[in-house]
Amino acid sequence: MGETKKKWFKIPHTYGIIFTIIILATIATYVINAGQYDRVEVDGRQVVIDNSYHQVASSPVSIFEMFTSIPLGMQAGAQIIFYIFLVGGAFGIIQATGAIESGVQSLVLKMQNRGILLIPISMIAFSILGFTTGMSEETIIFVPIGIAVARALGYDAIVGTAMVSTGAASGFIGGMMNPFTVGIAQGIAEIPIFSGFAFRTVVYLFVLTVAITYVMRYAIKIKNDPTKSIMYGLEQKYAGKADEFATFETFKLRHALVLLTLVAGIGVNMYGVFEWDWFLNQLAANFLIVGMIAGLIGGLGVNKTFDALVDGMKLVAYGALIVGFARAILVILESGVIIDTIVYGLVSAISHLPQTLAAVGMFFVQVLINFFIPSGSGQAATTMPIMVPVADLLGIERQVAVLAFQYGDAITNSIIPTSAALMGYLAIAGIPYEKWVKFIWKLILMWLTIAAVALVVAVMIGVS
């Protein structure tokens, strides 16, 4: 009678999924014919020569070699891994100063009496954090504030959550300066970091505008008739709890200086990328400088600054180390000399399609993979080494391959149950997963459509 029902299916751990792929890759070296393309260096990057694929001697990977592929993958992905750790640590320092939280709360409180205008303003603010800092799991701490304000304005928890989460998600999808997805993917693709900025900005504006309109329409509907709320009947459980969330420190001068330091640091990174050919090492170093200055300005002192640096690194350890595990797959495929055979098979399967449809196909492959590997950096490390030569052989710009990854990775994070950020803010908000899906699915379809159209346009105009 009091027994709990056993779950017959449990979503596997992401590392478990990656390790399973490592095992399958090892088995594949015994099954798939070894083969290679010839490559030449063009403008400093290795490019596959079309029609040069040929079979070579088989080189299967042993079980012990399968396990050694993991430390080898860590070594191969070291630059990306340490980049993630250092940038995560720098943002950990900025987070510890309380500047972002206090700034957001100050904005929310000042706009509280302006009702519906708070939705677009909040979503724009969070979208900026999304495309500059790659804000994802960090949105969780802001959800209670959004909900408190939304309820005070006559909306529900879904509006409060969407103000924060879909705003940040819109920026994450845009990804113009996202160091954890676009930056890493472009590094693997051997194209300039943060190139294609203008095209991404245009797509971002479409994505954000649709999201704002979507959330505002829902908010207006339930404001006029609360029974139309997806959360109607559950809201009473949280009634009267709005005030308990206003716990952040009042916005002060030092908070403003920290935010100005962050903005200046991002500006320097942008200039460094475009004028000084900065890459991951220089970007990480500059973020570290920004973090150190922010810690001192923010009143943390030396010891707390380094404590916050370590805490920030801990938060990104999951995503950073998964890059090494994902690179282990590539190590095995290269050791078994079958990665080019896989590329050859993919190209053969879609070579008869127009380039535009091939690009859209790459996008939906990334959407599927994102369910199993929701870590953006992990997905980039897993898929980009394969997608780049596929794009080369199909005559598609590498930038388009990065776009396909970027949109495929980002959009469904707002609906898939394997997304840690999504499940985190739904737990904080007290919103059942099925209720959120009922609210968000139409927006996800709109975003997917925008991305597919954007990829077609990118191919047609030759975004590079």
TrEMBL record:
Source organism (scientific name): Lysinibacillus alkalisoli
InterPro entries named among the record's database cross-references: C4_dicarb_anaerob_car-like (IPR018385), DASS-Related_Transporters (IPR051679)
Membrane topology: Multi-pass membrane protein
Major subcellular site: membrane
UniProt KW Lipoprotein keyword: no
Pfam families in the cross-refs: DcuC
Membrane-spanning parts: 12-32, 76-94, 115-134, 140-159, 171-189, 201-220, 256-274, 280-303, 315-333, 353-373, 411-431, 443-463
Cellular compartment(s): Cell membrane
Cellular component terms (Gene Ontology): plasma membrane
Protein name: C4-dicarboxylate ABC transporter
Superkingdom to which the source organism belongs: Bacteria
Keywords: Cell membrane, Membrane, Transmembrane, Transmembrane helix
